Each structure stands twice: as structure tokens, then as C-alpha cells.
Amino acid sequence: MTDNIPIKILNAIQQAGTEVAEVGTKGTEEMLRTVITGQELVPDAKPMSEEEMAKAKAEDEKKKKEGIENELKNIPGRDVSGEMKQEDQRQKSEEDQKQQEFLENIKRQREAEERERQEMSVAEPVNNQREAKKRQFAPGPKKKSPDPSQMSQTSEFKGGKID
Fold first, then answer.
1. Helices marked H in 35-49 — which ranges?
2. 21/121: higher pLDDT
3. Residue 6 or residue 15, greater confidence
4. Residue 84, SS3?
5. CB-side exposure of 131: number of CA atoms within 13 Å?
6. What is the pLDDT of residue 139?
7. Which residues on adjacent β-strands are paired with residue 151?
8. Which residues of 78-113 are buried (b: 16+ CB within 10 A; e: fewer)?
9. DSSP letters along 103-148, please?
10. Distance of alpha carbon 61 from alpha carbon 53, whole angstroms
11. CB–CB of 7/1 below 8 Å?
């Protein structure tokens, strides 16, 4: 009896899925029936030939160019190159300002970190005895071996002390 429960659950999920799919397809079919095509809106429209289409595109491009040229010509005293230079300078100044702010932020962060380090070093109590014990067996500077010119053949020193 316990073996049938998972099968029943799966069958119920399958039925729910098929019902959802059926409802979705019905809604889509209804939506497609209500779509109005271009032929229904303008029944007397004729398809253009390729030549007519090319002519229409060429005319549209020509009108766009003429419109842009007229707009530029109608603006009195416009100095396009000067405006471009001015825009370039404005962009450079914005970039410089952003870079300067970035560098200032880095400087502030480093100063804050340095202050924090100093506060941490001041806040730690120093135990001198412990520090001395730590350094007790630390290797110090090694003794230099004497130069062979300072030694005799029997490995004795000729002169004074050697450090």
C-alpha cells in the first residue's frame, strides 16, 4: 500500500501539468484568432516590387540627409569643431576629476590604516621580560672567520684580536 502512494502523487502531478498545458494552448489559440493582420487593416494595399522598394528607400535616405543638413544650416553661428573641442575638454576634465578623487580616496584609506596600526601598537601592553626571553636564543651576528693572510701556517693568529 505504501508503494502506491508515490505513483498516485506522480499521476496527480502529471494530470495537473496536462490541464495547465491544455488551458495555455486554448488561450493562445483565442489570442491568435483576435490578431489583426495588415491585409485586414488595408485590403487594397499592393505589394511593392523590388525596384519600387529601392526607390522608396533611396528617397527616405535623401530626405533624412536633407533634413539633417537643413537643421545644421538653420542654427545661426554654430561652431561644430569648437563644440567638439569643448566636449573633449569637458570629458578630459571629468576623467581627471574622477582620477583625482580616486587617488584621494586611496590616500585617505592608507592614512586611516596607518592610524589604526598606530592605535593597535599603542593599545598592546608590552611585556619586556617576555620580549627579552624571545630574543634570548635568537641568532645574532655571526663571527667572521679570520682572513688567511692574518693566520700563520699552523692556523694561529699573528696579531691582535679578531672579532
1. 38-41
2. 21
3. 15
4. helix
5. 5
6. 66
7. 157
8. eeeeeeeeeeeeeeeeeeeeeeeeeeeeeeeeeeee
9. HHHHHHHHHHHHHHHHHHHHHSPP-HHHHHHHHHT---PPPPPPPG
10. 12
11. no
Higher pLDDT pick, 43 / 116? 116
pLDDT tens for each residue of 75-108: 767 677 778 888 899 999 999 999 999 999 999 9
| Model-wide pTM > 0.85 | no
Residue 32 corresponds to which cell in the numbers above?
491568435
Place of cell 700563520: 152
Q: What is the rounded distance in angstroms from the CA atom of residue 84 to the CA atom of residue 62?
A: 26
CA dihedral sign, ordered 113, 116, 118, 124:
negative
CA distance 6 to 112: 63
Q: Cell 567638439 appears where?
A: 84
- The label of the residue with cell 701556517 reads 153
pLDDT, tens digit, 9 for 90 and up, residues 48-70: 888 888 999 999 999 998 888 77
Residue 74, C-alpha cell as written in the block: 538653420
